[in-house]
Design a protein that fits this description.
Blueprint (H helix, E strand, L loop, with lengths): L5 E6 L2 E6 L10 H15 L6 E5 L4 E3 L4 H4 L4 H6 L6 H4 L6 E5 L2 E3 L1 H8 L2 E5 L3 E3 L13 H9 L1 H10 L2 E3 H6 L5 E3 L4 H14 L2 H13 L5 H14 L4 H11 L10
Parallel strand pairs: 2-3, 3-5, 4-6, 5-7, 6-8, 7-10
Antiparallel strand pairs: 1-2, 8-9
Helix pairs in contact: 6-7
The structure holds octanoyl-coenzyme A (CO8).
Octanoyl-coenzyme A binds next to α2, β6 and α5.
InterPro entries: ClpP/crotonase-like_dom_sf, Enoyl-CoA_hyd/isom_CS, Enoyl-CoA_hydra/iso, Enoyl-CoA_hydra_C
Keywords: Lyase
Family: Belongs to the enoyl-CoA hydratase/isomerase family.
């Protein structure tokens, strides 16, 4: 499979997607969406892959939706085509997806990072929702996901002033799970993904599903959902293996069954 706008590699059990439109600071156009969806779906259905990483360049994770592609779109077309709805498919990826962010993650770039399961930021990362400076607002979840990540006050600040948040502030406010030196970003993200990929895939996928449910439901419903998933894990060989390995003081040999 050849891609126009991304580089796709596997590192052991980890799928790595690197945005590759350097001249446009990895701005997200229709081709980037098409390429990312094919790559992510391919990894999601590949039994040899346990987790994924998506990253950009040193200068930019992604500087937003492609402004030049967007600027002439008519309202009727935006509405009828449900502009950007395709990105929802990316969020249906079932295996863990880590965003490894260096440099600019602006607008759609910040939104793409937030669509991933967690964000590891380089100390050079800059997050922002600058759409207001273009006469629009976030269009792919920024006003909703950023608010859930960092709370109303900071989300309002970001969406209304269009200011950027540096890596330290992003970690402090819960947007990034950790900050690492820029030169170690991809290795650190790959290491985290490789660790996840060593665990039992069904339990990893259920953990992701359970945490995501916290965003969509009440606490009582979420707790019931978690408990049912937890119970169902006792039907797996991997639960028996994981607990036997602990008792026998050895490494578990998970079979994803
Ligand atoms: N779209 C298209 N081209 C871009 C974009 C973009 N978002 N960002 C940068 N580029 C291009 C520039 O036009 C320039 O191209 P050229 O050399 O042909 O002029 C090249 O990338 C390099 O950029 P700069 O020369 O501007 O580089 P600087 O280092 O001077 O500045 C910045 C870097 C600060 C990141 C600056 O490029 C910038 O402000 N970019 C725009 C950021 C922005 O406003 N992003 C929000 C876009 S709107 C949006 O994302 C709506 C979200 C809706 C949902 C999206 C779903 C994915």
């Amino acid at each position: 499979m050849s891609y126009e706008t991304i580089i796709v590699e596997t590192r052991g059990k980890v799928g790595l997607i690197t945005l590759n439109r350097p001249k446009a600071l990895n701005a997200l156009n229709a081709q980037v969406l098409a390429d990312i969806l094919v790559a992510a779906k391919g990894f999601d259905t590949d039994p040899g892959i346990g987790a994924m990483v998506i990253t950009g360049s040193e200068k930019a994770f992604a500087a937003g939706a492609d402004i030049k592609e967007m600027q002439t779109i008519a309202y009727a077309d935006a509405y009828v085509q449900d502009l950007f709805v395709g990105w929802e498919e990316f969020t249906r990826t079932r295996k863990p997806m880590i965003a490894a962010v260096a440099g600019y993650a602006l607008g759609g770039g910040c939104e793409l990072a937030m669509m991933c399961d967690f964000i590891i930021a380089a100390d050079t990362a800059k997050f922002g929702q600058p759409e207001i400076t273009l006469g629009v607002i976030p269009g792919m979840g920024g006003s909703q996901r950023l608010t859930r990540f960092v709370g109303k006050s900071k989300a309002m600040d970001m969406c209304l002033t269009g200011r950027m948040m540096d890596a330290a502030e992003a970690e402090r406010s819960g947007l990034a799970s950790r900050v690492v030196p820029a030169g170690e970003l991809v290795d650190e993200a790959l290491k985290a993904a490789a660790r996840i990929a060593e665990f039992s895939l069904p339990s990893v996928m259920m953990a992701k599903e359970a945490v995501n449910r916290a965003y969509e439901t009440t606490l009582a419903e979420g707790l019931r959902f978690e408990r049912r998933l937890f119970h169902s894990l006792f039907a797996l060989d991997d639960q028996k293996e994981g607990m036997a390995a602990f008792a026998e003081k050895r490494k578990p040999n998970f079979t994803n069954r």
